[in-house]
Design brief:
CATH topology of the largest domain: Alkaline Phosphatase, subunit A
Mean pLDDT: 85
Helix content: 25-40%
CATH class of the largest domain: Alpha Beta
Number of helices: 13
Shape: globular
Length: 451
């Protein structure tokens, strides 16, 4: 077959090269996910506890604590702006923002931390702190998802059809999530938009390409593979055949069905919200139900320096529907008891509104005091931990640092937060900073954890 014969504007040789490259890329994903191969033993065991999985809702940009879970109407309009009518929840004494009515109906399913703090106002440093529990240093430590992937993933016999650490839909992008653990523990970012009629998942579901067309492509690939046909039994070609089989199983087998939200009732999809965030919440529920131990929903749009309240009136109803329905759905399916839901951004926003131009009612970065929400997996429900001052500018009671929250999550997952962090580089490091170091701590969240 002549390499000069054209097919679709490229040579057949090039078409074959691209097809094989695509299959090879899928094989890295598929061979591990389908067969659980290349598992390495670690030196630290995990102890069985109530939590089996985490859904992290990462509020990229930093949500305002005053306009979500720590309203301050008594502080006046320079602090609360037009959102000055917080609503009571179904837990007496807990009020939240007026634009979160569904979450107000289900406050008995989550706990609010109103005294998160680290004092950093830079996106990059704050994101690293909140996701690793550490200050930046010469080493780049892994984030929580990578650590859970280490202790709950392939090294521990994980054999689900998709990787153990998944991000919907784009990576957070502020630092290397896997840190010094390496590429093996990076998240699989799906790409695409689950709200589209066909959720185009990178390497699994192609946008605007039908299953029939994919099968035709596979048949064409086999016809073009004259070298493989000429050398049957060659071990190198057999390995490629195995990779190809795994790749197509990913596309048309269990993984393809897992990412098909059309299998969910239309009414349930409507309750989650027909938008990227709402459908990402539904997808996260499907993933943990299938056994995935860590899912991050990267929910951007919260860096509201300008016209903050206009954005809140658009974004908060999305958050309300998606998060409230996720909590109810998990609970009704018996999954909430074993699934931690962790809602947080890298910091909060300035309690005092910046009314002047060019901000025109914006809020800046604020790391001195902000809020987080946790639910499920053993965390007690219907509770509030800590308090901020009357204007929300500082912690008034019970400071909670990122390492305190992360350590509590590890404990509920049965991972020793004070133990060693196994790694291929032979580094003698702990999961979290040791007590007495320069890393401040207010202590683990014993108020919310089982004895």
């Amino acid at each position: 077959m002549s390499a000069s014969v054209q097919s679709g504007g490229i040579t057949r040789r090039e078409a074959l090269r691209r097809a094989l490259a695509g299959i090879g890329g899928l094989a890295v994903f598929g061979a591990r996910g389908l067969m659980g191969q290349d598992a390495r033993a670690t030196t630290q065991a995990t102890q069985p506890r109530g939590a089996k999985a985490v859904i992290q809702i990462w509020m990229w940009g930093g949500p305002s604590h005053l306009d979500t879970f720590d309203p301050k109407p008594e502080a006046g309009s320079d602090y609360c702006g037009p959102l000055n009518k917080p609503i009571e929840t179904n837990v007496p004494g807990i009020r939240i923002c007026e634009l979160l009515p569904l979450l107000a109906q289900h406050a008995d399913k989550y706990a609010i931390i109103r005294s998160m703090t680290h004092g950093v106002n830079s996106h990059e440093t704050a994101a690293y702190l909140v996701q690793t529990g550490r200050k930046p240093d010469r080493l780049v430590y892994p984030c929580v998802g990578a650590v859970v992937s280490l202790f709950k993933g392939y090294d521990r016999g994980y054999q689900a059809c998709v990787p153990p650490y998944i991000v919907l839909t784009q990576p957070q992008g502020r630092f290397s999530e896997a840190g010094f653990l390496g590429q093996r523990y990076k998240p699989f970012a799906t790409g695409g938009d689950p709200n589209q009629p066909r959720f185009a998942v990178e390497g699994i579901v192609a946008q605007d390409i039908s299953d029939e067309r994919q099968h035709r492509r596979r048949n064409l690939l086999h016809k073009l593979d004259t070298l493989g046909l000429a050398a049957p039994g060659n071990p190198h070609f057999q390995l490629l055949d195995q990779c190809e089989a795994g790749a197509y199983e990913m596309m048309f087998g269990e993984a393809g069905r897992l990412f098909d939200l059309a299998q969910e009732p239309a009414e349930l999809r409507d309750r989650y919200g027909r938008n990227m965030f709402g459908q990402s919440c539904l997808m996260a529920r499907r993933l943990v139900e299938a056994g995935v131990p860590y899912v991050t929903i990267n929910y951007g749009g919260w860096d509201t320096h300008k016209r903050h309240f206009e954005t809140m009136r658009r974004k908060l109803p999305e958050l309300d529907a998606g998060l409230a329905t996720l909590l109810v759905d998990l609970d009704q399916r018996g999954l909430l008891a074993h699934t931690i839901v962790w809602w947080s951004g890298e910091f909060g926003r300035t309690p005092r509104v910046q009314w002047e131009a060019p901000w025109n009612g914006g809020r800046g970065h604020w790391g001195d005091c902000f809020s987080a929400l946790v639910a499920g997996g053993g965390f007690q429900r219907g509770k509030v931990v800590g308090a901020s001052t009357a204007t929300g500018e500082e912690v008034a009671e019970r400071p909670v640092y990122p390492s305190d929250l992360i350590g509590s999550i590890y404990e509920l997952l049965g991972i020793d937060p004070d133990g060693p962090l196994p790694n291929s580089r032979g580094l003698d490091v702990r999961l979290l900073p040791a007590p007495g170091t320069d890393a401040p701590s207010g202590g683990r969240l014993r108020e919310l954890m089982p004895p």
